[in-house]
Amino acid sequence: xxxxxxxxxxxxxxxxxxxxxxxxxxxxxxxxxxxxxxxxxxxxxxxxxxxxxxxxxxxxxxxxxxxxxxxxxxxxxxxxxxxxxxxxxxxxxxxxxxxxxxxxxxxxxxxxxxxxxxxxxxxxxxxxxxxxxxxxxxxxxxxxxxxxxxxxxxxxxxxxxxxxxxxxxxxxxxxxxxxxxxxxxxxxxxxxxxxxxxxxxxxxxxxxxxxxxxxxxxxxxxxxxxxxxxxxxxxxxxxxxxxxxxxxxxxxxxxxxxxxxxxxxxxxxxxxxxxxxxxxxxxxxxxxxxxxxxxxxxxxxxxxxxxxxxxxxxxxxxxxxxxxxxxxxxxxxxxxxxxxxxxxxxxxxxxxxxxxxxxxxxxxxxxxxxxxxxxxxxxxxxxxxxxxxxxxxxxxxxxxxxxxxxxxxxxxxxxxxxxxxxxxxxxxxxxxxxxxxxxxxxxxxxxxxxxxxxxxxxxxxxxxxxxxxxxxxxxxxxxxxxxxxxxxxxxxxxxxxxxxxxxxxxxxxxxxxxxxxxxxxxxxxxxxxxxxxxxxxxxxxxxxxxxxxxxxxxxxxxxxxxxxxxxxxxxxxxxxxxxxxxxxxxxxxxxxxxxxxxxxxxxxxxxxxxxxxxxxxxxxxxxxxxxxxxxxxxxxxxxxxxxxxxxxxxxxxxxxxxxxxxxxxxxxxxxxxxxxxxxxxxxxxxxxxxxxxxxxxxxxxxxxxxxxxxxxxxxxxxxxxxxxxxxxxxxxxxxxxxxxxxxxxxxxxxxxxxxxxxxxxxxxxxxxxxxxxxxxxxxxxxxxxxxxxxxxxxxxxxxxxxxxxxxxxxxxxxxxxxxxxxxxxxxxxxxxxxxxxxxxxxxxxxxxxxxxxxxxxxxxxxxxxxxxxxxxxxxxxxxxxxxxxxxxxxxxxxxxxxxxxxxxxxxxx
Amino acid sequence: xxxxxxxxxxxxxxxxxxxxxxxxxxxxxxxxxxxxxxxxxxxxxxxxxxxxxxxxxxxxxxxxxxxxxxxxxxxxxxxxxxxxxxxxxxxxxxxxxxxxxxxxxxxxxxxxxxxxxxxxxxxxxxxxxxxxxxxxxxxxxxxxxxxxxxxxxxxxxxxxxxxxxxxxxxxxxxxxxxxxxxxxxxxxxxxxxxxxxxxxxxxxxxxxxxxxxxxxxxxxxxxxxxxxxxxxxxxxxxxxxxxxxxxxxxxxxxxxxxxxxxxxxxxxxxxxxxxxxxxxxxxxxxxxxxxxxxxxxxxxxxxxxxxxxxxxxxxxxxxxxxxxxxxxxxxxxxxxxxxxxxxxxxxxxxxxxxxxxxxxxxxxxxx
Amino acid sequence: xxxxxxxxxxxxxxxxxxxxxxxxxxxxxxxxxxxxxxxxxxxxxxxxxxxxxxxxxxxxxxxxxxxxxxxxxxxxxxxxxxxxxxxxxxxxxxxxxxxxxxxxxxxxxxxxxxxxxxxxxxxxxxxxxxxxxxxxxxxxxxxxxxxxxxxxxxxxxxxxxxxxxxxxxxxxxxxxxxxxxxxxxxxxxxxxxxxxxxxxxxxxxxxxxxxxxxxxxxxxxxxxxxxxxxxxxxxxxxxxxxxxxxxxxxxxxxxxxxxxxxxxxxxxxxxxxxxxxxxxxxxxxxxxxxxxxxxxxxxxxxxxxxxxxxxxxxxxxxxxxxxxxxxxxxxxxxxxxxxxxxxxxxxxxxxxxx
Amino acid sequence: xxxxxxxxxxxxxxxxxxxxxxxxxxxxxxxxxxxxxxxxxxxxxxxxxxxxxxxxxxxxxxxxxxxxxxxxxxxxxxxxxxxxxxxxxxxxxxxxxxxxxxxxxxxxxxxxxxxxxxxxxxxxxxxxxxxxxxxxxxxxxxxxxxxxxxxxxxxxxxxxxxxxxxxxxxxxxxxxxxxxxxxxxxxx
Lengths: 909, 367, 354, 188
What we know:
The structure holds 4 protein chains of 4 kinds. Helix content of chain A is 23%, strand content 13%. In chain A, the strands form 10 sheets. Chain A has a 6-stranded mixed sheet. By secondary structure, chain A is of the alpha/beta class. Chain A starts with 5 loop residues before the first strand and ends in a 43-residue tail after the last helix. Chain C has 11 helices and 10 strands. Chain C has helices spanning 10-13, 37-46, 82-97, 109-113, 142-146, 172-176, 214-218, 236-239, 246-250, 261-277, 323-353, and strands spanning 23-28, 73-81, 126-134, 152-154, 160-162, 183-184, 229-230, 256-260, 284-286, 299-303. In chain C, strand 4 and strand 5 (160-162) form a beta hairpin. Strand 10 (365-369) of chain A pairs parallel with strand 7 (147-158) of chain D. Chain C: It holds the Pfam family Fer4_11.
């Protein structure tokens, strides 16, 4: 990021949320880079940016789409890069229909199920039709969504049956990705940006100019985003819009380019790599689904076809190694490596589905591990009520957080909805160990694993999660030791024999060694694997997470490397270990031109050394190291062997960056603007108001405010958006108990513009009550010009900012206050199952909120006034006949497909 | 403002903690134009000086963390010093009652003053640290040494008086001789440190960044010695028969003249804004009463000093005047420190004046 | 004897025979992101108690309000609109056009000319200033000179430090500081609000405080150094070991720089010239002039508006600079009092004799 | 002894040393002269990583007498170069937080207060609950007969401050037990 010439921070507040990471932005800025911050609020990031562009929350796709349109229509794209490294020239299935043709929907939507059949989105098969996902065209969006498929492919592109595609290098065929893209974004104009985002043509021009001026051979632009993009009903598409733009401008795989995901937690990257997520197994292997993955063969074929390009073609080796790591000698070729030991999904099992299942008394027991759903989950009341239905609850944390004490002092106790004596939940609170009281690795946001050494033993009865779960596993296995029930075999056969220390606790390094994997047979039997390329599908290797293989190469904990400053190399590679294979920039083959030469001296990073016959440079080449720039292997080879010399995107099934996603996403192959679930603004681009494929929970305890055009929209006339402050940490479990942090931001507050303050009679430092269809909360008021009313479609839209760190209840918290998340409804992105919490509708009034029953009465009174029902906002297809402001032009004949590159690995700062 | 019928169910707005109240008060007029951060340009309905901005109306300097004990000490120190002088005068001019009463007054005042000072320390048990160093730059340090020196003399002198009053019944033994031998030198020693004791407190206040005190640095010593004179004289008039209070009455009148003149001069010579706290609020009231009482006491002394009741009444008026002077000036200083206006405006003015005079190399702000 | 005003080497002035370069901060507010890491790192290192009454102040994101006994770094937040920005630019430009040399006679001509003819960029509609304030460690420190006990002293690094084991809390230094930095720590914590949680326990536990059992919870920790004047020590204890002060070390954007004061001033001048060259005439330095009322400060700041906007005095003057004159006046007054008394007795005696 | 300490009287040192104004070396106390940072006197220093956000800043943890006495940035880290944000800077307080819990607590069904429980019993009880629930809520197949082999009765929500090794064991154990509702903050 420090190498960038232009940095666009959007959907995130980097200076505030990642102050230390921001030093690289500061450094780039000091060297002359332009820093632009696009955000609903003027934040600490804006304060030090060259320019702040206020935007309406949730309208980012319009803005970026318009930049894409600007780049294409003014011919500002990086031709050589786009032609060689992206799927711009690839042809798409002729049956594909764009949103331009179908009033905001893509072809294949089933209004009954709310899911897309994605088969028409595929690349054109030279033999006719489209190239399906392996395993046939039968997987519908439904199932993909249920598996949160978008995230399942987080580490690279989803699979294709094969990689033989048709290309038109002139990009003139209307079925090329490029032409589809061009048409798709043709109506994303500066005028539309003005209308929907509230951004003036002048500001738009500044952004578009800065980005394009700072892209090309000699310059690179970098995007940084955070939850301002992900927490939307089509959040994955926000990121893809940026990815498309970055690919068009040639800013992926190059120093100072890329899209930086700015993640919020110490190991949030790690907990998706080695996921505690329902839909994934370690290394982004999907959890098997009932019906589709009944056999191991079905499963591995669907993960990565042997005929596709790139490293996912070896998915079988990764899967077998994982199963060998878990079930050891019990996993054999005969029993499909114990594949049947894995439980199966038949629908989503995310946090919010779990909440609903709790309310239905289907979930009995719940482990809450260093997490505070009573404060941190959207629709907090629903989350707390759900917990009151549990039979037992285990909370492991440092402090008595709200999630451990809701039965005693939660908001529902105060309002009288719950009575402590009536709550049958058995609650275990177990004190946890802090980060210095245990050894282990965190994976930071750039995929770097860093080992923490243990400083002291946990005090008192505190215990690390590693020790706890190891012990729990031992107890469970002991209790089942005599069982002959086949369902207990997976537990009894599990490899659970880690070397123990003096206190009987497992050695964390031995777990890391298992994750890394080892050879099981041959000369090297017992030795650690040094790269995932050594993994085999024949049972001769084991490894718990293939992308982490190499972290324990040579039996050395590479994550613990601590050479000061990372050593002399520019990639600072002697500090920690980056997955995969210690690469610091992914897809870095793209940092050289198709001939293997750096695009420019200034931006050189990896290049082809013709004499040595290999790729060399400042980083580990993310490419077969001896694959010459112009080599053209037989595509039928499949896997890495099939990568041509100019296929830098080695995890994508066709080796190209995807401008258009022929598969892998469930809500459209191209990012399209829809309004948030509840929005006082009508979608001017399409008749379709909300994302048709969003995941909805139409329930009485999860009502939505009327959207533009519906009755009652003026009852909740304002947009609220939630965010973090630098002084606190998420739901406050690690900050509201700390005096030094609490004093810096002691009270829950809301931020409003002077105009809104005048409109509602709000006074700086006074109180306000904010009411949504879910809840009403109170907050102190900060009146500030940092909040800007936006002119949207001719009317003024006020936005209210709400930090979400406070909660009610908890013991010994130094500060407490109402939780912003209580206001939030639950509606999810179908790709990721992440909730929309960056935009919602509300009203605001001066004064504190009522207490007790009267609080519920207030919320009800608003609901009645707005006549909200479970139907509100929960209709999939918006009636195209309804009045809209800017009807789309008559549609042209459908052009064919393009592609897209989801680039969640980001790139280096 | 009202939301709905639920208003009655809302918790009452808290009355505001101690600090919150202080905040609003210190903001005072400032708050209205400081509601928008330090952007003083707009919305400045009541700002006299359009250039004046501050940080949310928060003070720039901090007031001394002194309670009223210190204001009391200013008074008591003055009384002690003046009494020390009167005692020496009595000693030298052979006025035994004046001498005795003044010595006792001096000891009582300096004793009470010392207690007040120690009580006001953050760590009273460490009061002896005051004699850890001799800090020539520190009025507090010099004052501590002066106070100690004065107390030594005053103590010995007063001890003699007490011993005599009890009919030599103090259990002193052979020390009585020593005590008697030291009596006269001690009385003179105390007198030597008497005026520094009365005067140094003015420097103690002036040698601060507290705007009103610092601005008064030229004339505050004169106000303080005058006030000390009239107060100690007033006390003598209360304690001592008129037969021996002639000098005290003279001193009282001179003190009143000095006090009124020096105070007026002081107000005139100060930056008008920095002088404001002397005229406003509690401090202003106290200082107005102080002047009135001084004049009344002076006139009373002049006209009826020979009559004991009038002398006593005048003496009390003078004592009260001195108390009010000290408390008034003390209070005005504390108030001036709490309002950024008194720091910023005079400073801006003097900076501008220097610049206008062509002195541009001594600003803390540089390009 | 040492000096009371004007440029000098403070350590030499205090008769240190160890020859150490003067240390100081350069706080460049133009790159501050207002994260307050400096405040926290400072408190954590110095084990200062939590401050304030845990209520929102309504002052933008500033909830610690000012420097004080327990807050030795304070980040100010100022929100400004177009007009205020314009005025800041003008006042900054006026400084440049005064042609004020940064140091009398010092080779500073290169910094003066930088910005005058550069067309300023468009004035933005809005800006949010953030600035981390700290003790100035003045060349002539009012607090130090008025301290009666020697608790405040000048270190070999020319910084000004309170010795907590000496201070008796007389409070003179508090009034002696023209910047409102030093403060006496109150012995009680703020009264608990209508909130749970024992406020006493919110203070940092003494090192080695018992933990690992419930007893740790009930052990009420006393406010450390109550009743004693407290302020930034520039982490003297770290400096003697060659370490960087906690705030400067943690500052994510290097807005707080630490080093030899001469280097800091040089960097500051370079930076202000750079900003002027970009047309940011609002940039100016604070404390870099040894001819100012405190003889220059050890902590130098780059500000983007007038000092008072940040709560800093526009023309501070160390009160002790006028001390000789004050002593003179006091001496005169004392003499007057002696004279008055003498006169009273002389006249009385005459009258008495008559 | 008394004589020596009298000679140490700063007033005498003032005039002996030439520091007549009592500004410098003349007035230092023995404590001041012996000052040492606790980072220098720590028993050991351990390299660690900040537990808050995902930047992954390096930390140095100073330990004295088996207590953490200081946590500050690790200047060797190329990621953070020794810097920390306010949260990272407060890490020592996270470890030694005034409200931190050191005891297992147990709330029985319908109970109004916490009770204490030893850890061993607690883990045993949790294992029992886990197995009971699993038994009660086991699903062998879906309605069409495809294998499910899972329990819908046990769920988990893990914070993203868990180590990779911890996540791995949790995933491994829960998956083997057939629990599928394993989620973490990455999704929130």
